[in-house]
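Lab notebook, bench 4. We co-purified these components, and the gel suggests they stay together. Before we commit to crystallization screens, I want a quick structural picture of the whole thing.
Request: model the full complex, all chains together.
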Amino acid sequence: MIINTTILSWVTFIYFASAVFYMFRMVTGKEFWGPLASLIALAGLIAQTAALILRWVESYKLGIGHAPLSNLYESLIFFAWTIVLLYLIMEWRIKSRNLGAFVIPFAFFSMAYASLNVKSGIQPLIPALQSNWLISHVITCFFGYAAFTIACGLGFIYLLKGLEGRESSSPFLRLLPDREILDELSYHSVVIGFIFLTLGIITGSVWAYSAWGSYWSWDPKETWSLITWFIYAAMLHSRFVRGWKGKRMAIMSIIGFASILFTYFGVNYLPGLHSYF
Amino acid sequence: MKKTLLSFLSSLKLTIGLLIIIAVASILGTVIPQQYEGGQSFSHLSPGLVKVFKSLQLFDMYHSVWFIVLMGLLSLNLTVCSLNRLPTSWKLFRKKPSPDRDKPFEDLPPDRILATEKERNEVIRGVEKLLHRRYKRASRKDTANTTFFYGEKGAYSHFGVYIIHASILIVITGAVIGSLLGFDAFVNLPEGESTNTVHLGRQKGIKKLDFTVRCDKFSIAFYDNGMPKEYRSNLSFLKNSDVIHQGPLLVNHPITVNGIRFYQASYGAVPGGQAYITIKKGNEQGTTIKVKLKDSFYLKGNNATATIERIEENLMTMGPAVLVNIQSPEGNIRLWVFKYIDRIKEGIPGLFKKVPKFDPGLFKPYYFKLKKIESKYYTGLQLSHDPGVSIVAVGSFLIIIGFLITFFSSHKSFWLRVDEQEGKSRISVAASSNRDPVGLKRETDSLVKHLKRMI
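Here is the predicted assembly.
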């Protein structure tokens, strides 16, 4: 096994540990676990960044140099990286560790899926992928996906928080942030995700225009990204125009995330041009 | 009647309904195979279903009449909604609230009220200067013992959403222009050949270009692991036998000639390649000859003529093979000459008994062996002419600008009141905004900080 994949398989366990500690913190209500969980997540992020750089360098040593964003394995790894990066920035900005237990598991799942089910070797780029648009397209898309992942995590917390107030409200529900704050954070995540998704679609169209002769060809991945875009556009409109908030937004952010998952994975089972992801 | 139609067209219900219908239709389109070139078989579908699907244009759904109508309705809905709301936003943008209002100052937190020993007129002069420096749109009103100020920024943020909607309409316009005035086409061009006729894709039929394209050479390069590395067509474009453009065409690097973009789309082998055949008698060295399709050569001694009837890249997955027809006084013999005959023989015991025409020694005393084939390729070129692209690009760019305005700016209003209380001058600061409370607080804090520094 090459060094970068070894590090990456360790990072999978690091994120698992971090997620577990975030959960300990919630269940026990002891703050002690919080900083530990954050520190471990940060260590994982640093190790993962190093592994990605190593992988990049390694590809150049193989004479097929390209950014580590070129196949399903690399995209899953990058997805986890963007989730943890965005989460840690958010944790630092809002000074609250309550969301970790709902967000870091997504990073762990992505890493675990990559290491268990997907070929991890560095492959050369086929002609269609040899484009400068590869990097900007993949980066914008995955930052969008990561922001929507966080919004989905927030949606779950919002619904959980709704259980509070009934007879046996456990201490960990009380620890969760107020619903207004959750709603506000979820809205901000969706806005960030929406802008990045739009940028991802635009960069993808520019790339398609230089590779396939058409900026839009209704390929399943394109179509599904448009459907996802519609879902989040509808969500933002119902908030702006109708003033929808709270539970409905939480449910919509979960539906939107399901659409993201289908755009990312489900589409691979349909015939189309994006078959290398 | 007119009113109800208009209110229907501008309703959010219509928007949501259309988005759902378009989304569901699009999902159908990703499940049903889409094609416009024809010829694909739908053997896994029952003929009745194929008929229904065809009448609903489901095999080319995204270009079907009903899908275009849906998209048209969505554009209309977007336009009507935006026009409906525009006057409200315009009023909000133009609105200059009178500064002498007391309502904003109700329930003001203590940290928004500053007191100073300084004389009131001096304070008023300072506040006015500061406000005019910070906000382009600022105004003042004096009453008996009180002076009011009003300043605002970001009033343009009311228009962000219209920029987004207009940009989406621009993108759709570009797409419509492209599909009306543009075309897409393809042509398979063998090496060394040229053409000015291409097959239209969606519109069907053929199209004559006002120049000729020639494929000088096609080549493929592979990585060590066998994955393709590069597809390259060396193309020349000619007009009245003058070369107007020449260059390599690669995937991701299209060539534009006279507004038509050429893309490297596919490739394949064509008959017309050359084969090298070794012919020997008994144990002698043998001679290798180069042959093309339909070439004939003489076999000394037997008074026989051999003709090359077929050259195959890969015959029944057994590798390169050539069909030779030998005519001699004794009669006609056809035999396939393979490159990898030894390997094939090992794989199928008793092959020559079963299929005598695979026996390289069938025509005695000669023995034939295929040394190699030099394939001739054709390059598959995709052509497109789309005059709407620059409009779509402008629209996409404006969408992002619209996003930045809508999501990252807000209309912030500030009310300041200067009066006297218990012999001290007093400044009260109130603020409001249409969104982004966090940004408003930051801006207000900064304003208060500057006011404190002044007094």
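Residues 1-119 of chain A form one domain. Worth comparing against the SEC data before the next meeting. Residues 144 and 196 of chain A are 5 Å apart (CA to CA).
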